[in-house]
Amino acid sequence: MSESPSDAPRLPAVVELVDPLDPIDAGDLRDIWRALAQAAKNGDVRAAEVVRRWLRVRRRRLRLDLAPIHDLAGAARAQAELFALAAAGEITAREARDFSAMVENRRRAIEILEWEPQLHALNAANAENERQKRNRPPR
Fold first, then answer.
1. Which structural domain, as residue segments, surrounds residue 39?
2. Which pLDDT belongs to residue 15?
3. 72 and 136 within one domain
4. Are residues 35 and 90 in the same domain?
5. CA end-to-end distance (rounded Å), the chain
6. Does the global pTM surpass 0.70?
7. How far apart are alpha carbons 95 and 55 in whole angstroms?
């Protein structure tokens, strides 16, 4: 017997994931943040350090309009553009480093793709040489 839509169990519209072992829930975080900020403003050095570390970790989302990287020259242009943006103060050195690492990974992938046909050709040539050596009559 199939269930009709009215017989199917209903799920709540919003499911809240709560860790029963975590004494701080999401609703408490705003109050905690305000208390920390106020304590830091009042000279509490520990609170100021917690706020500083939290702000350092909580970085802004950054969108850069870099040209697509299709070849090694494109990777070099992107690295130069990142350097210029950091030098002009438009992005932080850390942001430039993070993007630079992604550009470097892209450059390596392109480099491997460019080497691949040559490696296959070398492997084929080596296999052919080995085959010819085995088929030569002994002297």
1. 27-57
2. 41
3. yes
4. no
5. 84
6. no
7. 15
